[in-house]
TrEMBL record:
Highest taxon of the lineage: Bacteria
Spans traversing the lipid bilayer: 12-35, 63-83, 90-110, 159-192, 199-217, 223-240, 247-266, 339-360, 372-399, 405-426
One Pfam family per UniProt: FTSW_RODA_SPOVE
Membrane topology, from the record: Multi-pass membrane protein
InterPro entries given in the database record: Cell_cycle_FtsW-rel_CS, FtsW/RodA, RodA/MrdB
Primary site of residence: membrane
Keywords: Cell membrane, Cell shape, Cell wall biogenesis/degradation, Glycosyltransferase, Membrane, Peptidoglycan synthesis, Transferase, Transmembrane, Transmembrane helix
Keyword Cell wall biogenesis/degradation on entry: yes
PANTHER family, A to Z: CELL CYCLE PROTEIN, PEPTIDOGLYCAN GLYCOSYLTRANSFERASE MRDB
UniProt signal peptide: none
Protein name: Cell wall polymerase
Amino acid sequence: MYPTVAIRSSRSIDWLTVLLYLALVGLGWVAVYAASYAPPAPDAPAVHALRDLSFSELMAFNWFKQLLWMGTAVVLIVVLLVVDYKAYDTLAYVLYGGMILLLVLTIFIARPIAGSRSWLELGPVRLQPAEFAKFTTALAASRFMAGINLRQQNWRDQAVLAGLTLLPVALILASNETGQALVFAALLLAFFREGMSPLILLLLAAGGVILLLALLVPKLWLVIAFTVLLLAAFGLNSRLWRHHLPLSLSVWAAVIGMVFGVDFFFNHVLQPHQRQRIEMLIDPGKDPLGKGWNVTQSKIALGSGGWLGKGFLKGTQTKFDFVPEQSTDFIFCTVGEEWGWVGCLVVIGLYLTLLWRILLVAERQKSVFGRTYGYCVASILFVHFTVNLGMTMGLMPVVGIPLPFFSYGGSSLWSFTILLFTLLALDAHRKQDLLR
């Protein structure tokens, strides 16, 4: 009457997805080891065997701490697979509410680290609630969408869904963690799958393009271009002039307002380090030894690997710490330098295969909740993967988000593990949803 656990048959688990997860986590640990490895100096005393080091001495190594996180992730996986699968649906709003309270608490009690109040410290352990907020928001949004029909274009329901998504975003932005907040935009892809109007995605994409053009092109030229486009549209379609003149002029005014509002947003809303990242994206060679150092060294590391790489523990950019944050945000540099183009292709192939598999798992769910959650997982992983590789290659601003399953860090590994294996837990019991 009160089921709390449900042991799953091993045959009901999607083992291909599990194998892809293990491959990425294992290769990630190898990359973390390489990125944090430091060769001893020629005149340094002999290093003791690892078995002779104390636990506290081993904790000085990122690769060892990552091993511990991997071990605890295994425990998490077991818990996620044995907990009654109905609990994820039933407790979705409870978990979401608890995470909102934790995000509020983080703003006030977290110690500033690199200008951000986003880490809670529990003794030697640091956790980033923003990482886990993606999971709870995905659950809550999936629970809400299971009870509505977005295809009916009910604006009240869409407003509630927007509120569920934007509330954690606002709290994460308040803690000065812009990169993590941007990831929540990935949920739009899942909402689109469930019937959200493509017009919303189109408007957001158009707004992003206009803002980018306003940074790259003189504003007078943009005003002239948009005015000519509007006049051309009036000339080609007389109905637009007769029936939609107020709407057309409103759109034109909104676009012009965005063009001239970019300066205010750029200079008065964005923080200095955020402005620097955008400036470096627009002109990477502006300050290669200062603001653009990270991206410059990252591209050097990636390019220097050639086809097959320099070999394990032989990357010079890695060994001499030319790339900052190489164990976390720029971990892919290690792949490019030591494993070469072939190694990068293998890693990218594993990610694309995992994303493809998650979409297949999502589509075969028997409930709207399970399908929507599956698409949320795929969308979050896709955005993390795309943005991380993009900033490593200098194609996107450096926003400080990790590469899933690869980057060093317990919060990152735990959050992505929870995201993925909750989906696998739901998938293992998808046939039972028909009986509910």
